[in-house]
Specification:
heterodimer; A: mainly alpha; MetI-like fold; disordered N terminus; disordered C terminus; B: mainly alpha; two-stranded antiparallel sheet; 14 helices; 2 strands; flat
Chain lengths: ~300, ~350
């Protein structure tokens, strides 16, 4: 700030200083706008951070008070009864995310490998990359409707499989793009060294290139995982939700975000409490994984490589 | 050198020796190293097939991204045939939404989506640019990491948690403190009028603004850092203040990218579902007041799809999904092209 004021003084040398009479007023005006703009930038940052802080405080304050062992071990109690938890929703979310990861991570990584290793600079890969970015922007509710039409209608029933597929499809573009970016960071000399030893191309990609970039690739997968972990919209009419224990893939299954949604809109205080507690659990899960990702990426993803 | 010459010979020696039936005693101890090399060579011989298979497999996965987009489009079109045929283009201009009499018009939802997105952009864009300016140009190094991490976190919070927070914290706050002021000050525009329930278009716009802020600000930050340092130095050397440097040196050069990031934020706002569905009030009506309950394309699907029992109703909702899909794809393509144009650098210099 101090340096800038000095600069403001010198600023009168610029084109506007041609009229000597107004130069003091001019300088003062420029000093004012400069500080005004700085103030506004600081203010907007505070305004942006405020809701975040508010959300976290509310979550911890309202969520922690209803978190107890029951929350993790019991299934929802019938309306009007005290107690009950969200154990089935937590397990259901795990099942859904497992299915999603089994679909999304391999396909995503493979697409990333293609983009960085085979398609570098080719027209096809540019189009694929672009399509992935666009697919990333498709609303999750549309994904839900599409998977409903694709799986739920033919099989004539809501199922965990349909929910998992919907989430898995949403993971693919994120995983593919981060994998590509991470593989591009692997130095060429490493690939050349592997190929020079006579290692087959595919083998060098898997156990040299991919392995070198592994921390980064895992980061991408976790990012995609964290993103779909909180998705509700695609699950409403695919996984549908379930008040009871179920881990069967061909049956409707409960999911944490879905349960939060249902409870938040219900008229019962007891359920509101559970919704807050569920949100806290969800947020902790996501914040932990995002922080982990951040930790890994800022510490130099490819430490071994260079 | 020596090793290299010997190695190719090594596998041959046992090959020659084997049929001879151990006539040459010297060859007997050599198999272990020889077989290692031979398996190695064999692997390399096979790698042509393996490489090709691997390549095709990877290509297949890359192409699956196309397939997914095509599949989504196809499923949506096939399943909304009923209303596509029955209402045609009238579907998008009709304002009646009457599931009982099977009369469907999507105009209230299109209006709701547009207005809630515009409200959120009006609120979010100045703040997002302000944050980006602060983080790239003014922020002390130590604070920058923490703040950008916090804005990243804002992007990671699930939509449903935003919705929960909006219902129980934001909406009462708006109803008690913000809305009365708005009604008093801006009531004459007709945009803020009684009755006020707290939930409605304005609440949806506010929560949307909070949700799209991180996207806009992080992309704006990206394009602002992409502006070459020489630009800043040149403007400063002419004696500009910091704000003048930011305005002339940075924002001017980054403006295309900023517009791109805003459009990307718009794409997100258009398709955002859960938080909006929870606070907008779900009413298929068009009203001038922003405090009145309304519905968006995404929220009507979320709220009504599960209870849509007959085929026409369901088909109408899927057609709304199709429209949403097409709109967001166009918006996203536009935004990506703009952002790409800037981060690649070439057109930015021309501008």
């Amino acid at each position: 700030m101090g340096g800038d004021q000095g600069r403001t003084g010198e600023g009168s040398l610029s084109n506007m200083a041609n009229q000597p009479k107004s130069s003091t007023a001019n300088r003062r005006w420029r000093w004012f706008t400069n500080h005004m703009a700085s103030g506004l930038a600081v203010l907007s940052t505070i305004l942006v951070i405020a809701p975040l802080v508010a959300i976290f405080i509310d979550l911890v304050y309202k969520g922690a008070s209803s978190l107890n062992l029951n929350f993790f071990t019991k299934i929802p109690a019938p309306v009007g009864e005290e107690g009950g938890g969200m154990a089935n929703a937590i397990v259901g979310s795990a099942v859904l995310l497992g299915v999603a990861s089994m679909l999304g991570i391999p396909v995503g990584i493979a697409a990333g490998i293609y983009l960085s290793e085979y398609g570098r600079g080719s027209k096809l890969s540019t189009v694929v990359r672009f399509t992935a970015d666009v697919l990333n922007g498709v609303p999750s509710i549309v994904m839900g409707v599409a998977v409903y039409a694709l799986i739920v209608v033919p099989t004539k029933g809501y199922s965990a499989l349909a929910g998992g597929v919907a989430l898995g499809i949403m993971m693919i573009p994120t995983v593919a793009r981060t994998t590509e970016e991470m593989l591009l960071m692997v130095p060429h000399s490493i690939r050349e060294a592997a190929l020079g030893l006579g290692v087959p191309n595919w083998r060098s990609m898997i156990s040299i290139t991919l392995k070198t970039a592994m921390p980064g690739v895992i980061t991408g997968c976790m990012l995609a995982f964290a993103r779909v972990a909180g998705e509700t919209a695609p699950l409403i009419f695919t996984a549908f939700g379930n008040q009871f224990w179920s881990t069967a893939l061909n049956q409707p299954i409960a999911a944490l975000p879905l349960q939060i949604y249902v409870y938040a809109l219900s008229p019962y205080d007891e359920w509101h409490r559970l919704a807050w507690a569920g949100s806290l659990v969800l947020i902790v899960l996501i914040v932990v994984s995002v922080s982990l990702v951040r930790y890994v990426t800022t510490r130099g993803v490819l430490k071994g490589a260079s | 050198m020596n090793l290299r010459i010997q190695e190719p010979r090594a596998p041959k020696a046992p090959d020659a020796a084997a049929p001879a039936g151990g006539l040459v005693p010297v060859a007997v101890p050599s198999p272990p190293p020889a077989s290692a090399i031979r398996t190695f060579l064999r692997e390399r011989g096979n790698s042509r097939v393996a490489d090709a298979t691997f390549r095709w497999l990877m290509l297949l996965c890359a192409l699956s991204i196309f397939a997914i987009v095509a599949l989504i489009a196809n499923e949506l079109v096939v399943n909304s045939k009923l209303t596509l045929a029955k209402f045609g283009m009238k579907f998008f201009v009709g304002s009646a939404w009457d599931p009982v009499n099977e009369n469907f018009g999507a105009l209230p939802f299109i209006y709701g989506t547009l207005v809630s997105s515009i409200v959120s952009l009006v609120l979010a864009v100045p703040l997002a640019v302000g944050v980006a300016v602060f983080l790239t140009e003014m922020c002390p190094q130590a604070l920058r990491g923490i703040l950008s991490f916090l804005t990243e976190l804002l992007a990671a919070i699930p939509s449903v948690v935003y919705g929960l927070w909006a219902i129980f914290v934001l909406v009462p706050l708006l109803r008690v403190y913000v809305d009365p002021v708005l009604i008093k000050l801006l009531g004459w525009t007709g945009l803020f009028m009684q009755p006020d329930f707290g939930i409605g278009m304005f609440a949806a716009g506010v929560i949307l603004a909070i949700m799209i802020l991180p996207i806009i600000s992080s992309l704006t930050r990206e394009v602002m850092t992409a502006v070459p340092h020489t630009q800043r130095e040149a403007v400063l050397a002419l004696g500009a203040t910091r704000w003048e440097m930011i305005r002339m040196g940075v924002l001017r050069n980054a403006r295309i990218g900023i517009v791109g990031s805003i459009i990307l934020g718009l794409g997100r706002a258009l398709g955002e579902t859960m938080a909006v569905a929870m606070v907008i009030g779900s009413s298929p009506t068009i009203s001038r007041s922003l405090l009145a309950p309304a519905a968006t394309m995404a929220s009507v699907i979320a709220n009504e799809f599960a209870e849509a029992s007959d085929d026409t109703y369901r088909s109408a909702l899927i057609e709304i999904g199709l429209a949403l899909f097409l709109v967001t794809i166009v918006v996203n393509i536009l935004a990506r092209l703009l952002v790409w144009a800037v981060t690649r650098g070439a057109p930015a210099r021309a501008a």
